[in-house]
Q: What sequence folds into this?
């Protein structure tokens, strides 16, 4: 018995006749692959960056929470906004310290600046240079002792003001050491009560 040959031009292995195309394959397979990679990689990148940012923020909070005195660094934007203490650009000897209790929270900030920047700072917090009373130290001895400020030193000149705010906003006690002409040293205690 002889085997019957398959019809011409159609063999199971050939995938069709001579005029037929092989099964359809996407022409832009690389584009599909790129889209898939981007859909996975971009969100993953954001997650990793967010993790690093959160870790750094946690370190800053931990450092602030464990501090027992002034931290010589710029307070975070969040602290400056909450306590409304806009440290002037190019200020030097910047340091801060935050305290929290059931009834009050305070941010202590010091910096050295120029006369012009001091005027801008005072305007930004809602007052002006004319409000500074010569010879006035508006930060209490207890507050100064909290961070080791010596605000009644012999041979030094001071001027101060207190900026009272509505209850929802912190009050600012500002004392400026005006001893060195053109380089005032500013001390601020911003206190909010609950």
A:
């Amino acid at each position: 018995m002889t085997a019957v040959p398959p019809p011409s031009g159609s063999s199971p292995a050939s995938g069709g006749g001579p005029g037929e195309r092989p099964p359809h394959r996407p022409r832009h397979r690389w584009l599909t692959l790129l889209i898939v990679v981007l859909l996975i990689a971009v969100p993953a990148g954001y997650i990793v960056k967010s993790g690093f940012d959160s870790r750094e923020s946690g370190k800053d909070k931990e450092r602030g929470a464990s501090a027992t005195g002034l931290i010589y660094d710029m307070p975070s934007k969040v602290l400056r906004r909450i306590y409304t203490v806009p440290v002037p650009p190019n200020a030097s000897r910047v340091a801060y310290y935050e305290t929290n209790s059931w009834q009050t929270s305070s941010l202590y900030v010091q910096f050295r600046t120029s006369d012009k920047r001091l005027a801008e700072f005072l305007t930004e917090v809602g007052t002006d240079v004319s409000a500074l009373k010569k010879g006035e130290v508006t930060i209490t001895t207890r507050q100064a002792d909290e961070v080791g400020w010596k605000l009644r030193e012999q041979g030094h000149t001071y001027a101060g003001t207190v900026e009272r705010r509505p209850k929802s906003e912190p009050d600012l006690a500002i004392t400026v050491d005006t001893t060195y002409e053109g380089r005032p040293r500013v001390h601020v205690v911003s206190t909010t009560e609950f």
Summary: The CA atoms of residues 51 and 136 lie 47 Å apart.
